[in-house]
């Protein structure tokens, strides 16, 4: 299913959602902003059985109240309490798209309960793959390594840099995603999004290569400036870290504790 | 309970909730958590350093799907707090000792916290079933109540775990120092640079695109940067 007609139904939603331009009447801009706010609790009851199912239903409660009224709200929400799992940030797009489908259904469109259920089942994995890859595998490590690089250069603002670098795009996607999902429906996850995200990820990762090399260089230079063989230990550690990353047979934390244990054993025995 | 300990507990609760239950603003990451804990204990620079090193190790794990992550929120708080506590009782020249013991405490807290996070998620299933029954009975407001109970539960367990781990780690650190503080200092001189290197390797591999080509590019860039430094020094 593709997005539903109209030049920019999302603009209608942002203006007040009166239904012009192809967007079904009912859901207002205020409702969508409330969904944005509630999406922060998407994982409040994260669990292995239903994952974010309850969080999705709870986030959509303003839409339920608007479309089904006080009498039908409980039944409406009950349909959304099943399994749902996706990336917590890109979930905003799914929330908007589901709200759109439900609004069309309430307006008498040819959307059935099964259509909505199938849409959720399709959106979850697609957005999870995109979000995990972009936010968890790329944005978070890139922002963190930049923050650590600041710390390695002696600045106490590294944590703030990391937090801002991650959260500015995070907040924008959270807010914009609900409106974009509502404007485009299921078309929000399409080839254009996939290609765009892949390009962005490639650029960010190439930046990451440069930043990671700069971090190692700064760490080694810092140790070398202090005298002693510290720079060599940094490089030896780097080799261990890179080799560990190829197989990952033990958690990284256990590897770190093993390094500390070996150093303590050496310091105790070699006297 | 001292004000610093009370604030550490509150911080542990907030960060535990941020990790999964609410917002995921990444204040739960060790780099931020370590800095905040350093502020609480009056040692911002020490907290930032310990948090930064723990952050590199935290990048190894991705919170994907149903996988239960290690407790990196507790790691930053426990690590920075142990470093600050040890730093108050160690003479000035032994600066590396608090950092090493803090990092060890943080790494241990992260690993040991994984079953605690798993337990919280299992408990959430009970709350979800209760909320579903309430909604089926026509009381949709139970959804909101269950959500906030979930956040409060995650925060309370996180605060409790952070304080318990801090108590254990600080006691163990004091015992190790009393047993052979000199050996810890000697070990720190080697272990800290090596840990920075391991962490940088872990973080670099996380950032590099898949394939040997990206690794070769990274190593070539590293050699180029070293050569530039050597040329500058000459």
Structure commentary:
The complex is a heterodimer of chains A (271) and B (234). With 271 residues, chain A is an all-alpha fold. Chain A has helices spanning 9-15, 29-38, 53-59, 61-78, 91-106, 113-152, 158-184, 191-225, 230-247, 252-269. In chain A, helix 2 crosses helix 7 (158-184), helix 6 (113-152) packs antiparallel against helix 7 (158-184) and helix 6 runs parallel beside helix 8 (191-225). Chain A is elongated. Chain B is mostly helical and 234 residues long. Chain B has one domain. Chain B has helices at residues 3-21, 30-40, 44-58, 72-89, 96-112, 114-136, 141-207, 212-233. Chain B is globular.
The average pLDDT value of chain B, as a whole number, equals: 94
Total of helices of chain B: 8
What is the first-to-last residue Cα distance of chain B?
Answer: 56 Å
> Helical element count of chain A?
10
* Tally of discrete structural domains of chain A: 1
* Structural category of chain A: mainly alpha
Largest sheet of chain B: none
Structural class, from secondary structure content of chain B?
mainly alpha
**Shape annotation of chain A:** elongated
Oligomer: heterodimer
- String of helices and strands of chain B: HHHHHHHH
Radius of gyration of chain B: 21 Å
Overall radius of gyration of chain A: 24 Å
- Give the domain tally of chain B: 1
Q: Helix amount of chain A, in percent?
A: over 70%
What's the quick description here?
Chain A is mainly alpha-helical and 271 residues long. Chain A is built from 10 helices and no strands.
What key attributes describe this structure?
heterodimer; A: 271 residues; mainly alpha; 0% strand; elongated; disordered N terminus; B: 234 residues; 8 helices; globular
């Amino acid at each position: 299913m593709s997005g539903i007609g109209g030049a920019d139904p999302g603009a209608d939603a942002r203006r007040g959602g009166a239904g012009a331009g192809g967007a079904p009447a009912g859901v207002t801009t205020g409702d969508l902003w409330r969904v944005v706010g509630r999406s922060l609790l998407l994982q409040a009851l994260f669990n292995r059985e239903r994952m974010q199912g309850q969080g999705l239903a709870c986030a959509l409660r303003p839409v339920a109240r608007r479309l089904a009224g006080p009498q039908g709200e409980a039944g409406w929400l009950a349909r959304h309490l099943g399994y749902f799992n996706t990336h917590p940030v890109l979930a905003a797009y799914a929330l908007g798209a589901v709200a759109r489908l439900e609004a069309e259904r309430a307006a008498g469109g040819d959307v059935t309960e099964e259509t909505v259920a199938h849409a959720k089942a399709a959106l979850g994995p697609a957005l999870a793959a995109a979000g995990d890859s972009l936010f968890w595998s790329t944005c978070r490590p890139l922002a963190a390594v930049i923050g650590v690089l600041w710390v390695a250069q002696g600045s106490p603002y590294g944590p703030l840099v990391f937090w801002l670098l991650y959260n500015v795009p995070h907040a924008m996607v959270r807010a914009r995603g609900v409106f974009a999902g509502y404007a485009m429906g299921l078309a929000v996850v399409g080839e254009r999004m996939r290609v765009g995200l892949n390009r962005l990820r490639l650029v960010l990762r190439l930046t990451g290569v440069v930043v990671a090399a700069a971090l190692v260089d700064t760490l080694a230079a810092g140790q070398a400036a202090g005298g002693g063989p510290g720079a060599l230990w940094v490089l030896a550690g780097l080799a261990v870290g890179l080799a560990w990353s190829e197989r990952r047979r033990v958690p990284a934390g256990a590897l770190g504790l093993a390094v500390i244990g070996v150093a303590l054993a050496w310091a105790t025995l070699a006297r | 309970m001292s004000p610093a300990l009370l604030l550490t507990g509150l911080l542990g609760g907030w960060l535990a909730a941020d990790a999964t239950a609410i917002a995921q603003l990444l204040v739960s990451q060790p780099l931020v958590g370590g800095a905040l804990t350093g502020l609480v204990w009056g040692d911002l620079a020490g907290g930032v350093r310990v948090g930064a090193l723990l952050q590199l190790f935290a990048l190894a794990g991705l919170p994907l799907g149903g996988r239960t992550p290690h407790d990196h929120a507790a790691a930053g708080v426990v690590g920075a707090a142990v470093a600050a506590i040890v730093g108050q009782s160690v003479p000035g020249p032994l600066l590396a000792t608090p950092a090493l013991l803090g990092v060890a405490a943080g790494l241990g807290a992260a690993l040991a916290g994984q079953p605690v996070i798993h337990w919280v998620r299992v408990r959430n299933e009970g709350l979800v079933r209760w909320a579903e029954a309430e909604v089926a009975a026509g009381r949709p407001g139970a959804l909101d109540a269950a959500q906030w109970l979930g956040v409060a539960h995650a925060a309370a367990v996180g605060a409790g775990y952070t304080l318990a781990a801090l108590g254990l780690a600080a006691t163990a650190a004091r015992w190790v120092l009393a047993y052979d503080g000199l050996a810890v200092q000697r070990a720190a001189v080697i272990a800290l640079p090596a840990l920075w290197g391991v962490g940088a390797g872990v973080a670099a591999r996380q950032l590099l695109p898949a394939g040997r080509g990206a690794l070769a590019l990274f190593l070539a860039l590293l050699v180029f940067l070293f050569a530039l430094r050597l040329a500058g020094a000459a």
